Amino acid sequence: RIMDNFVVDFFKADGTPLMKDYRGKRTTKEKVSWMSLEMLEAEGHDISAYLEKQLRYELIKELDEGDDFYGLGDKSGFLNKKHYEYENWNSDLPQAHNEDFHALYKSVPFLMCLKKNGECYGVFYDNTFRSFINLGKENEEYFFYAAEEGNLDFYFMVGENPVEVVGSYTYLTGTTPLPQLFTLGYQQSRWGYESADDINFIVDNYRAANIPLDIIHLDIDYMDNFKVFTWGEEKYGKPGELFDRIKGLGVKPVCIIDPGTKKEDGYHIDDEGVEKGYFVTDKDGEVYVNAVWPGDSHFPDFGRKEVRDWWANNHKVLIDMGVGGIWNDMNEPASFHGELPSDVVFYDEDRKTNHAEMHNVYGHLMSKATYTGLKEQTGKRPFVITRACYAGSQKYTTVWTGDNQSLWHHLQMVVPQLCNLGISGFTFCGTDIGGFGADTTPELLCRWIQAAMFSPLFRNHAAKGTKDQEPWRFNKEVVDINRKYIELRYKFLPYIYDLFYKGETTGLPVMRPLVLHYPNDPEVRNLNSEFLVGENILVAPVLEQGATKRMVYLPEGTWYDYWTGEKVEGKQYILKDAPIDVCPMYVKAGSIIPTYEVVQYVGEKPYNKLELLVTPGAGEYTHFQDNGEDYAYQNGEYNLYRFTTKGAGEITKEMIHEAYPVYEEITSVVLGK
Ligand code: MIG
Fold first, then answer.
1. Which DSSP category does 437 fall into?
2. Averaged over 233-241, what is the pLDDT?
3. Is 51 left (phi over 0), alpha (psi -120 to 50) or beta?
4. Is 30 buried (19+), middle (13-18) or exposed (0-12) by CB count in 10 A?
5. Does ligand 1 come within 6 angstroms of the Cβ of 191?
6. What is the residue-wise DSSP string for 228-276?
7. 217, 219, 433: which to mutate for ligand 1, most atoms within 8 A of CB?
8. If DSSP codes are grouped into helix, strand and coil, which group holds residue 504?
């Protein structure tokens, strides 16, 4: 209902109110309520970005008692965003991410509101300029979205439940495409693997420890002086040799690529970029310079197709060597000599604009370029990982949550961050397992691998100079626990892959907050420490140092303890024993869950056997099978199996689609038996 004075209220067809304009004004004159600019200035911070511009518009909405908020990408803090405030401005900040952080690396201005009465809607504020979201922190009577510049361009989505709202949002901005199967395997990374010998040492130790490993990441250390699309032969040997060796052991290399291109005469990438005008410029047309790892650097203008194509083609040297994927970092863009001024000239295709508008989509456009390059040159489903991005980037890239630390509160944040990314369309996401900054402990690493076992991006990563964090560096207990959960991940690989396959159509994530499926259960609206994998598995990891038991909430229905097979009725809290080697997990009644034999890497053996893990109760499950690599499935080359059980242990199989070699054997096992 749009009033004469531009007040806009949203109702359902039956007249139920959803979102209404707040009739009053904000109760403060501060542009952004968390900032005392005077204080910031006194401490020596640069406040120019905040002084330069006033807000261009504010959308102030009524906040009803009982409104809860989810989404917003990977903002720090808790699952429910109510009573917090955020800034959409892709930021690389060195401090430990706390719940009072306003901005992180990504800007995904999508909000899902769940009202007390179970009504649900989504709002997507599609504006790439710096913007602010305040969800009842400033005043409990309203929440607002405000932007410094740009158009008022927002989408309102109604659904009967959160599942429908997420479906609408991803229908609009795109779903996460089906990845290659091996990218769901376990991955090791570290900033500071200095040489080919280091990489070989890591891979060999994984194989020796019998811990599955599919991918090893090469951080900035592999380049010649941090120059992108070069190879540091001195330490990393002849191009191709290292890759050939580790690929012989079943491990695929993923290389990091930053946007900052070293400013250096005679460096072919920089020379070409300067000559063809591919880099952003200052307002007078001089190529803009700021420092990143290589020192003074230039920044590609990814908003233009010809620049993206150039960037995409530059990957050929790595692709020819056999790279398995590309990891994009520093693309907020981060810069060492202060942020890029807002008037640095960028293009949005043919339209001249500036950093203020393109900042939040810089990572999006960079990963789009990378995705296109990998797709065209390999014909496989691209594996791209990015740190910075915007709403919709899920079409092109996987994300990780950036520089967390080896802290228990960062382990605790894994669940809300990944669940909110999922609500925001980013199915393929993960955190640095074990923590990036600071030193991990044996206990923290064990609990982290458990919490992350179902995180789609499954990567242990650490910062240069921190304690060695590969599981086999620790004592036998730690090694055994890590192996146990990494093996479990490989066992559940077909279940995770099925969730991706289904998510490509539905937009639903792999890791889900309970509120997505139980919106009418008040107990789960603020449940930060449990999550669902699909609808069938509930995980309640231990996230507290020293704890050996934990309280678990089970929502309505009947659940089976994964470890003991014990039947537990839902809608209650239970106390579960969880010694250091146990991550509490529950499987819903009537589940049929596909599992594979554990291997050391995807492709070690053909997956020609399927085992169904079933729980008592009637149920149905659809399983997808294909080559796990390319786009043949889009031309029909796949199998779809439908398994049904009436609950008496008997399972029937029906082929819904058959155009790929079927399993040689399908067996089933009842949980706990
Ligand atoms: O300024 O490439 O978040 O994962 O190891 C640090 C080195 C740059 C930040 C990334 C991190 C990566 C590191 N990078």
1. B
2. 96
3. alpha
4. exposed
5. yes
6. TT---HHHH-STTHHHHHHHHTT-EEEEEE-S-EE--TT-HHHHHHHHH
7. 219
8. helix
- Residue 581 Cα to ligand 1 middle (Å): 31
**Would you please indicate which residues are annotated as catalytic (active-site) residues?**
329, 332, 403
CA 5 to centroid of chain Cα atoms:
41
User: 180-204 burial by CB neighbour count: b if 16+ within 10 A, else e?
Assistant: bbbbbbbbbbbbebebbeebbebbe
Give the residue among 457, 336, 437, 338 at the shortest CA–CA distance from 386: 457
Rounded Cα distance, 76 and 87, in Å: 11
Evaluate: CB of 97 within 6 angstroms of ligand 1.
Answer: no
275-296 per-residue burial string, b: 16 or more CB within 10 A, e: under 16: eeebbbbeeeeebbebebbbee
Which residue minimizes the CA distance to atom 6 of ligand 1? 330
Confidence of residue 325 (pLDDT cuts 50, 70, 90): very high
Extended strands (E) in 130-238: 131-134, 142-147, 154-159, 187-188, 215-218
Residue 360's Cα: distance from chain center in Å?
A: 16
User: Ligand 1 mean position to 292 CA, how many Å?
Assistant: 11
- Ligand 1 neighbour 402 (Cβ under 6 A): yes
Q: Which two tokens stand for residue 550?
A: 């934990």
Would you say the CB of residue 298 lies under 6 angstroms from ligand 1?
Answer: no
Environment class of 402 (CB within 10 Å of its CB; exposed 0-12, middle 13-18, buried 19+): buried
| Structure confidence by residue, pLDDT tens digits, 452-467 | 999 999 999 999 999 9
Query: Residue 241 pLDDT more than 70?
Result: yes
Instruction: Give 620-671 as a DSSP string.
Output: EEEEEE--SSBSGGGGT--EEEEEEE-SSS-EEEEEEEE-SPPPSEEEEEET
Q: Is the CB of 483 inside a 6 Å radius of any atom of ligand 1?
A: no
Number of C-beta neighbours around residue 3 at 10 A: 9
pTM over 0.90: yes
